[in-house]
Design brief:
10 helices, 10 strands, 4-stranded parallel sheet, about 45% helix, about 290 residues, disordered N terminus, alpha/beta
Length: about 290
């Protein structure tokens, strides 16, 4: 009996000791904006700690990293950025955090970027960085994320590939859904506050005919505003969109001057109405329903 009690005490002691050891910390990766963050976390599952840098509702074009943003990325193995001029602060943030520029992975240049033509958009051609608004490019993004995370964590490769396949099937279904929805849009011309919908427009047979703010943070000239008003009035006329991350006074004034309604579209997501990639794209499609039918 004494021997059995000794075994039990020893076992309890070992069990107590084992409880003092925490599970190995998961490797940290980060994403600059919500659409990339959502795709990354859904591929990564519970094998990695995935963090979002830019809080929902903020404009990435004029974002200034805070000290706590820098501190939170000191151990980041990878930072997924968009590139193409959307989040140029990512490189400096990585340097300040001690993560190093080499750990910033820019996805945009790999997504067959769209070069928007000059004209009512701006005097020179514009590269639209918002590639994720096209679900077909989003599927390619998933492939790239799977390969990047598998390189970071080779043992997790099969896990990431399985999750990536499931995510791509969800996005394929989304694309088919929005394609059917787009057939009901009688109007086809859009004026957006800034150049965020070229990929969505190209995928679903729409045309962005003007951009209110030719460059992020720049006030449009009176001549540019007059040209946009003419475009809105038509014929055939175009639907006018603003974005929740942007100041809306200029767009509101344009709508009043042109005598057209002002619609809101969220191309970044992350809020309660766009808490996943699919909800983000469905939200864009719903905005089109309200403006184009």
């Amino acid at each position: 009996a004494a021997a059995a009690l000794a075994v039990m005490v020893a076992g309890a002691a070992l069990g107590s000791l084992s409880c003092t050891h925490s599970a190995p910390a998961r490797r940290l990766v980060a994403a600059t904006v919500f659409p990339v963050f959502d795709l990354t976390r859904r591929v990564a599952g519970d094998r990695l700690d995935v963090r979002l840098i830019l809080a929902p509702g903020l404009d990435p074009h004029d974002y200034e990293p805070r000290p706590k943003d820098v501190a939170g990325l000191a151990d980041a193995s990878l930072i997924f950025a968009v590139g193409l001029g959307l989040d140029p602060w990512a490189q400096g943030l990585a340097r300040s955090a001690g993560a190093g520029e080499a750990r910033v992975f820019e996805l945009g240049p790999l997504m067959d970027p769209i070069l928007a033509p000059p004209g009512l958009i701006r005097p020179e051609p514009l590269i639209d960085p918002h590639f994720w608004t096209d679900p077909v490019r989003a599927q390619h993004t998933v492939d790239v994320l799977v390969e990047a995370l598998s390189g970071l964590d080779p043992e997790g490769g099969p896990f990431y590939r399985e999750r990536g396949g499931a995510l791509k099937r969800s996005i394929q279904s989304l694309d088919a859904e929005v394609s059917r929805q787009s057939e009901t849009w009688a109007r086809r011309r859009l004026v957006t506050f800034h150049g965020s919908l070229f990929y969505f427009a190209a995928r679903y047979g729409l045309q962005v005919t003007a951009v209110v703010q030719p460059a992020p943070g720049a006030e449009p000239t009176a001549q540019h505003m007059a040209a946009v008003v003419t475009e809105l009035r038509g014929p055939p006329g175009a639907a006018l969109f603003t974005e929740p991350q942007m100041e809306s006074q200029v767009a509101t004034a344009l709508a009043r001057e042109a005598g057209v309604p002002l619609h809101e579209v969220d191309a970044l997501g992350g809020g309660p109405k766009a808490a996943s990639y699919e909800e983000l794209v469905r939200g864009i499609a719903r905005a089109m329903d309200g403006a184009l039918r």
